[in-house]
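Batch manifest, entry 17 of 40.
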Amino acid sequence: MVFLGASAFAFGAWRWVEAEEIEEARSNFERASVATIERLETRLQTYTQVLRAASGFQAAASGVTRKGWNEFIGKLDIPGLYPGIQAIFYSPRVAADDLPRFIAGRRVEGIASYRVLPPGARPYYQLVGYIHPETPLNLLALGYDMATQPIPRQAMDRARDLGITVMSGKTALVQEGATGQPGFLLFQPLYRGEGAPSPEQRGERHVGFVVADFRMWDFMLANSATEDNSMFELKVRDTGMPSRPESVMFDSNSGFERVSSLFAYEELLLFGGHAWHMTFNSTPRFETGIDHSRSNLILKGGIVTALLLSLLTWLLADSRANVLRRAEAMTADLRASEERFRRLSELSSDWFWEQDSEFRFIDLPRNQPVKGGLHAEQVLGLHRWDLPIHLSPQEWAAHRAVLEAHQPFRDFETRFLVRPHADR
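Output type: structure tokens
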């Protein structure tokens, strides 16, 4: 019972401390998740500043040229300072009547293969005019009409009407094609004239956009890769799409079977009029690395304590039993010794007696007559001087002095007066 009680207490303490350790790990996990979201929001805000700087360059220049665009954007050191951006491009709004002249101007600047994609007659075109950096992959986007795709067009309309930087939903970048990485775009509206237009003037004064496009995987790996990544698996969904596989923009566990996790955290990342649904799940590596040293120490210490208490209880109980057994044995031996002594005294010709503190007889041989013909029942409770013994007053006084001094005596002879021939 002692072991069970102590073990139950140790187990309860272990579970309580273990729950605290798990809750501490949960807090660390959630802090790391929130920190990742905040870091992504900060980076997106930084990219917005880049777009505003480019829009300021467009507004200040008398006319945007291919050379001027590449020189200005090149000085921003996009790969070094703003990792994750695939490209920054200037997208003017071109009316159908101005399209031949616009295409000719691009070809004069050295883009001989410039053409409108997808082909077709439309009232206006929202074309990719210049792009930086001019990598072979990015050059595939030149001439693309972004207004032909519903997701970019929805974001462009919001940016134009609200006069703010707007983030698009999940889209397929022209450079990637339908099978490449999913991406998204940031649109910064451009207006003609000085000063910010009023809401009523924005449609009339709108002349185009400065746009940054992002490959989602490159963006996430460039801006969320920290030591905390070992703590969680991250999945990003576009909230503008139904919750189905097509809405997934990023999944750090892509290609692997997802197992159940101990911790999970979900939050929306809101930016530029759009939202991403962020789901964090703890990794097996993080879960197995939770510090259980305190609870394990309590469990081990509790078991050892329970064993020691059980051993101590057993030793005390065994010692008490031994003491009782010895006491019983000694009592039995004493009684046997007294019985042997009594039997020997009854067989002996000597007379053995026992007196109390006032020198009255309290024990005498019961099975033989007392000297002088008296029996024990006649003598018990009497003093020696109460018996019919012939002794002078001086002899009695001397004898009583020896008794009161509790000194041994011997050769004390008396003569009983009950019978004339009684033994002495």
